């Protein structure tokens, strides 16, 4: 069984507080940057990164889960959280993993969010598509979390076999959304990535009877 080796280093960048004033309702999060390597053939991919306030308390946690179908099925059965491959990134409050990800822009499940990674999204024209390819920004709660997929290695079939994930956080006074803001580009999923379409996907909400509807915001 092949296990992913997730070695990484974390560098903190502390800036003068006068330049980092975020909305008071959200605790200021310490800025950081880290990089870790991901082998797409690994049977198990699992990591968690705390997002800490100025006192060192973990306010949020970025979870990454992926790997083989059998591993994800077993994990889902054990935790009662639905994990969808090949790699799912979730941002949750506190330190306990949850299916409710702050990277989701509405009430939809995390596998519909830009935190869900399909490896075909980071190569070719799809890799260059704004906010859905190799570079993704998530603006919320007084900070901007950036996910970038770098040093991508492919095999002779152009399948991704390895990449580095770089995550960085900066404080953002204008980032006031409870969940991630919509990026301003339409999701190219199921379409060609050659044409970039500007716009905003509709916000989906779940009604009391369990049915879905488009919110008028």
Q: How would you describe this structure to a colleague?
A:
By secondary structure, this protein is mostly beta strands. It has one domain. It has helices at about 70-80, 125-130; strands at about 10, 30-40, 45-50, 60-65, 85-95, 115, 135-140, 145-155, 160-170, 205, 210-215. The chain has a five-stranded antiparallel beta sheet with strand order 1-2-9-8-7, with no helix packed on it. Residues about 5-25 have low confidence and may be disordered.
Ordered list of secondary-structure elements with their pairings:
Layout: E1 8-12, E2 32-39, E3 44-52, E4 58-67, H1 69-79, E5 87-93, E6 116-117, H2 124-128, E7 135-140, E8 143-154, E9 160-171, E10 204-206, E11 212-214
The proportion of strand residues reads: 35-45%
Q: H/E element string?
A: EEEEHEEHEEEEE
Category by helix and strand content: mainly beta
What gross morphology would you assign?
Answer: globular
Count of spatially separate domains: 1
Using brief descriptors, characterize the structure shown.
35% strand; mainly beta; 7% helix; 217 residues; 5-stranded antiparallel sheet; 4-stranded antiparallel sheet
